[in-house]
Amino acid sequence: MPNTKPTAEYKKIQYATFPKKNSHQERNIFYPSLKAPNVPKSKSSSFLDAGFHPRREKTNMTFPRDILRGVYHFTQTINGYTIDSPVFRLNTNATVLLLITFSLAVTTRQYVGHPIDCIHARDIPEDVLNTYCWIHSTFTVADGAKKSDKSDMSSIGIQTTGKKTVKQIRYYQWVEFFLFFQAILFYAPRWLWKSWEGGKIHALMMDLDVAVCTEIEKKQKKKLMIDYLWENLRYHNWWAYKYYLCEVLALLNVIGQMFLMDKFFDGAFMMFGIEVLSFINDDQEDRVDPMIQIFPRLTKCTFRKYGVSGDPETHDALCILPLNVVNEKIYIFLWFWFILLAILTFLTVVYRIIIIFSPRMRVYLLRMRYRLVRRDVVDTIVRRSKMGDWFLFYMLGQNVDSLIFRDVLQELAHKLSRHDFHHGPGFKGEIQEA
After folding, report:
1. pLDDT lower than 50: segments of the chain
2. Which residues cross the membrane (predicted)?
3. Residue 160 resides in a domain
4. CA–CA gap between residue 218 and residue 90 (Å, rounded)
5. Which of 22, 55, 121, 287 has its CB 3.0 to 4.6 Å from that of 198, i.e. a possible disulfide?
6. Does a structural domain hold residue 2?
7. Which domain holds residue 297?
8. Rounded to two decimals, what is the model's pTM?
9. Residue 385 located in a structural domain
């Protein structure tokens, strides 16, 4: 059994930098900690690592590399630690994973199989015709796509052109790139929050979520956490507001992407899901599949070349687009998924606004989430702190052992009740607004 008796040697730990009171400068906070030389330490960073600077943790990543790492961090709440809300992770983790998966599926289908197969009766090489129609796009007859009487059509949107409106189908070359671009946009709020969060939650955890910590280590780390929270009480508002801003950006992103996809599909996407639901309820004989209107399987292509006499010749071809069978499934799912995300994210933003302006709601939520903490402790904590402190407490409670978190809040509430706030962080008064 390792010797865990602490030595008399002390070391100074620089574990965070925060603004001076009434100043924009920074101050360094040092605390002594007893050294336990024979106790194995976790490889993860903590306040016990000399020179740890949470604001600089993971901020040197490049943006593309961080996007790819975000796919792995989709399971972060299972194997790691939590720095955001479940709805925020749906936007920035789950949706990114879905979009990248869809992009890879379309890419594989496009470059492994045949993305287009054109039929022509004359003497034109098949690969030449396929390549030409793929590059220069195909088209359907817009009027024919809406007709319920299909007796004069070989397929929806396939009939004689004449003076009818022609709808160009150009998007199929760009679907995989567009999906990946959407993934980047969805990951951007998380990347921004990770840069602003600066590793604060991970640093304050100090491996207190690990069950192998000895009692001596737990006491030392709890003391460091309490000292930090005491010295920096009421200095976390901007930190919390930055996270709330990222949630607002997530809401604006999902709404903006609905309009972006509508533009990508020439104004046919915004009502896509509603039209599909209406199509299911229509009579089978009269209904027109809206998925085939946006993602036609059969299109037309016009190939022009000079004949042997030097006169121009026009050749019409029918082109099969097997990729659209995959595309329609992807985008009907994304339509409903984005609607769900928009609703959940909007409700989350409303929830944040209530938290900012209602201290009593903060008391209620903290009590409901962490029932081991006594009511008087929660009341004291919220009364003597600000909204940003509440957000930090809430995040810490999700990442450390519940008993340790209870002890930390009880000790902090005891210090707050015992000290005159004219000589400490904050001031006396009723429950504080944000």
Report:
1. 1-61, 71-72, 75-76, 78-79, 145, 147, 153-154, 157-159, 163, 421-431
2. 171-188, 243-261, 330-357
3. yes
4. 33
5. 55
6. no
7. 114-172+266-325
8. 0.73
9. yes
